[in-house]
Amino acid sequence: MLAKIHSRAQAGVDAPEVVVEVHMSSGLPALAIVGLPEAAVRESKDRVRSALINSRFDFPARRITVNLAPADLPKEGGRFDLPIALGILVASGQLPAETLRDVEFLGELSLSGELRPVRGALPAALKSRAAGRSLLVPADNADEAALVSDATVLGARHLLDVCAHLLGQQRLTPHASELGDRLPRYDDMNEVRGQHQAKRALEIAAAGGHSLLFIGPPGTGKSMLASRLPGILPPMNEEEALESAAVASISDRGFDAALWRRRSVRTPHHTASGIALVGGGSYPRPGEISLAHHGVLFLDELPEFDRRALEVLREPLESGSIVVSRAARQAEFPARFQLIAAMNPCPCGYLGDSSGRCHCTSDQIQRYRARVSGPLLDRIDLHVEVPRLAHDVLRPGSAPDGEASEQIAQRVVAARRSQLQRCGKPNARLGTREVNRNCTLGEGSHRLLERAMEQLGLSARGYHRVLKVARTIADLAGSEVIADAHVAEAIGYRVLDRNSA
Ligand SMILES: [Zn+2]
User: Fold this and answer.
1) Residue 214 pairs with which residues in a beta bridge?
2) DSSP string, 236-257
3) What is the distance in A from the centroid of ligand 1 to the CA of 303?
4) How far is Cα 22 from Cα 9, in angstroms, rounded to an integer?
5) Does residue 72 contact residue 93 with C-beta atoms inside 8 Å?
6) Distance (Å, rounded) from C-alpha 286 to C-alpha 91?
7) In angstroms, what is the span from residue 217 Cα to ligand 1's centroid?
């Protein structure tokens, strides 16, 4: 009269184990669900009852108690419908208990017994593999769950299919994902006309994992450039692809097979709320910075963003993750994104333009720039100007300009490899001590950097950023020694320091 079914909740990108216990006793017929269920789980009663009856099972006229254990774990949504229904069938003797022991179940039921997809099937598959059990999910979740190699994933469309499988009448075959080795395609760098300095800065950013700020008037291709970054980054490895798919899997949009192994470019608008940006809500959901995990976060018109929202970005920029708290609940989401930001040189955007249409006062310009100054700007490694180009350069239909993304990516991959061999991480993430050990300069370059520091008024943090960028430039050149030219180029990417000096 007591059945235990294995299932999983969802907390951040984790999928903690939940045991669904179903107990039947004499007394007035009733169905009660205990164990901190949310409203959506309580609604599960009606769905489970209809699904069982419409699938021609007996709905026992007994007192049924469903306990979701442990009780202190928040439980959301219809994911427990299927385990509850199976628990009732086992407790009433309509299904044998032993066939369910090594399987975990997730799935929402329709009133007719069809299985509807749930959020977070991929994180659940990771955990059931670790627990040595197979995972049975709605068919629409099977592709995503089966991305976890060596996980045994079964997909079913209807409660009756699940029962036929458990009764040994018609076995479900383990689902094999067809997504595996597919490589994504990105827009090519050579579609961007001109802007060679900006392209070079993107290559350096890609090679060392550096954050980058484009400064230039509207319509100079800043967002076009940013969208080309994934195409020159090293391809995602299996672990990165799984982590990034796991975030999508728990987001409101859900997992999308078309985006598998694709580095995402997230471009939140400057009016986006703090929650949309960093995550949150009463059932904490990942925000833009987590959806950009192992991809690119592009913040266009940086000074227009809410300053408090930008301040929150400092933490994940360093740690690669974000903890979202709401009331008593906490969730941690990964957020290892590469930041590309863009801004106009002045409020109107046309400072220094030959048309002379900019009438911004120096006061206005200073106020505008002050909005991004401080701690966030301090964490951006490269600043580069993206000037307006002559019309004939921009003329559409002209041939590809400069190298293709594939060629650039080869240098980036080689440079990354030497960084990983040296310190086990990209240069952008080197700590102070690692910088001091691995970014040593010769006498001449040291003097060059000292002079620049004085002239630009560089902070100690800015100083270390120049060293890290110089290290990446040397890596791109295949040089173990950081030469004068590498330092000089790195200093050139501190435009905003220069202007404010
Ligand atoms: Zn202006």
Assistant:
1) 342, 384
2) PPHHHHHHHHHHHHHSSS---G
3) 14
4) 17
5) no
6) 38
7) 9
Dihedral angle of Cα 241, 247, 250, 253, to the nearest 10 degrees: -90
Compute the distance between CA of residue 184 and CA of residue 262 in angstroms, rounded to an integer. 6
Q: How far is CA 209 from the centre of its chain?
A: 15
Q: Kindly report the pTM of this predicted structure.
A: 0.90
Q: Which of 4, 10, 7, 123 is nearest to 76 (CA)?
A: 10
Q: What is the pLDDT of residues 16-40, one digit of tens each?
A: 999 999 999 998 999 999 887 777 7
CA of 351 to the centre of ligand 1 (A): 5
Ligand 1 centroid–CA 157 distance in Å is: 60
**Is residue 64 very low, low, confident or very high in pLDDT (cuts 50, 70, 90)?**
very high
Query: Strands 285-286 and 296-299: what pairing?
Result: unpaired
Single-letter code of the amino acid located at 332: E
180 CA to centre of ligand 1 in angstroms: 50
- Contact between 109 and 81 (Cβ < 8 Å): yes
Q: How far is the CA of 411 from the centre of ligand 1 (A)?
A: 38
Q: Which two tokens stand for residue 359?
A: 């009438």
Q: What is the pLDDT of residues 176-186, one digit of tens each?
A: 887 766 788 89
Distance CA 332, CA 346 (A): 37
For residue 301, which of 267, 278, 275 has the smallest C-alpha distance? 267
